[in-house]
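Weekly puzzle thread! Below is a chain. First person to post its structure in C-alpha cell form gets bragging rights.
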Amino acid sequence: MASPSAHTQVPPTGAQAPPASADLALQVELDRAGFSPGEIDGKAGANTERALAAYLQQHGTPPVPGTVLESYVITEADAAGPFVKIPEDMMAKAELKSLGYLSLLELLAERFHSAPSLLVSLNHGVTIAPGATITVPAVVASAAKPAPTAKPAATAAAKPDDVATGAKVVVSKGQSSLTVLDSAGATIFYAPVTSGSEKDPLPLGVWAVTAVLRNPVFRYNPDLFWDADPAHSKATMPAGPNGPVGIVWIDLSKEHYGIHGSPEPGRIGYSQSHGCVRLTNWDATRLADLVKKGTPVHFVE
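Winning reply:
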C-alpha cells in the first residue's frame, strides 16, 4: 500500500526517467495484449514468465514491441480523493464510508497497472500532484476510481448478456492462473491469480457465473474464516478498491465462492486466499467484461 498522504514527493536526482528495461517492456506488451503479468514492476518473475508462456502458446511468437512509456498529466479530479486511512481490524473497517485509495500515488499506480515503487522510479524529482506530468507504463489505463459510495451488492448492475465473449473460464491451482477461452477454444484473456490455501483449498470442479457485481460491498461473516477474531460479528464492509474483494465480485454457483479483485495487487500469484480466486482489480475488471451469468468456470489442478 502507498502512504496515506495525498501528494507524494519523489526524491530529486537531477536525472530524467530511466529508459524502459526489457523486463518492463515485456510486461507492458503482455498487459496490452490481454496476457496480464499482474502488477507491473519492471522485474522478471513467475507471473511474467507464465503470462509469456500463455501468450506463446496462443500466438507462437512473442508480442510485437511497441510504446512502453507515455506521459500523463495528473488532474484535479485525480487528487480530489477522498483518500482514506484504513485500519486493520475488520470491525473498524465496517465503520468507514468507503474503502477507497490511501493516496494519489496508489490511485495512479492501480490505474496504470503498476507497483507504486515503479512510478516513483520512473519519476525522480517529480511531485505527484495536480498539473504534474508523469511517466507511466503505456497500458490501456483502467477507469478512474470508483465513486466514494456504492450500491449494495444485491443491486449492483451486471453487464448486459450480449457483451460477454468468453465461452469458458479455467482457473489452474498449480499454475496460479486464470484463462478465458472463446467459443473456438482460443485464449482471449490470461491473468495470474491467488486461489485457495492449505486450509481453504480451491474447490475443484465445474461451476458457473451467477452474477457480475461492480464496486460491491462485502458481507463479512467471521464463521467462514478459520483465522477470524472470535470477537468479530457479521458486518458489511463498504465498497472500494481497498475492500476485501476489491472493485469486482463475480459470484459463482459454488456457495460462498467467487472471483474478485484485491486490495493487494503485488501479492497476486504469490500468496494464499481463503478459498476464493483473487486477481488485481484491473484484471478482475477485464474479466468482468468477458463473462456473464451462466459462463462455466472450471477449477482444475
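Puzzle host: Confirmed. Bonus trivia for everyone else. Confidence is low (pLDDT under 50) at residues 1-17, 144-162.
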